[in-house]
Protein 1
Amino acid sequence: MNRNLYALPAPATDAFDDFCGGNAGGPHETCVSLAAIPGTEASFAIRDSKPEGAGKELRFTGTELDDFATGWVRTRGLSL
């Protein structure tokens, strides 16, 4: 059974980890932030640190993010 991840409470602000690069416009300007969603086994909220992204987030299951991450690494020719 799929849960509506958007119906669950938002993670606390201090629960987010920032993954930053570029820093074109000041501290944390170019970050992707990730936090586990409370009340789920493995689901996550992702948000953008840019002012234009304020108040917006995307929510995914761990499986969805794993599939995205492996696809991103493969299509970008990256390695871990």
Protein 2
Amino acid sequence: MEIGKRIRAYRKIYNLSQEQLAEKIFVSRQTVSNWENNKTYPDIQIIVSLSILFNVSLDELIREDLEEMKMKISNNKANKRADIYSLIMICSTILASLSIGLVLALPESKFIWIVPVTLFLPALWSSFVLEKFKRNNDLKTYKEILAFSQNKDLEVLRKKRDPRRTRIEKGIIVLAYAGLTLLICLMAIFIANFFK
């Protein structure tokens, strides 16, 4: 992505420090540093603010990045990889939950708890990998920028990006996932008790 280089270049043309730029557009200095080092990408409101501040067109700021954004959004290989990590997470959790029945069926074994813990580790690892993938590929921001550049309505995308709504959705997903895991554990316990 080229926007980090452009922000740095325009900031230097206007003789602004990262802190001064951050104050002008109401973000932290660390945020500006992250943009300039291509760790994160500014959202569409910030890009508009930067274009006004630097007196350049939006096209001039993001033109070279648009094709890369399109490729990242439609990158089937990356999406398939994310799907594989999701599948690993789900399968690992199901197997770990089912192994609880094994633990209950063999209570005399001291090391039997190693089985569900070991089966759950890939789920934990996959969840961290997925979060890193989401953070590194800021697809929501890219979708908004592409929609804006194509004169599409951003309100639909912004509603999906509402932080409160996102937290609620994530909470519901976590609760549903935990509920499903608990249900599988209870089924495993029932099956273990049934065959005793």
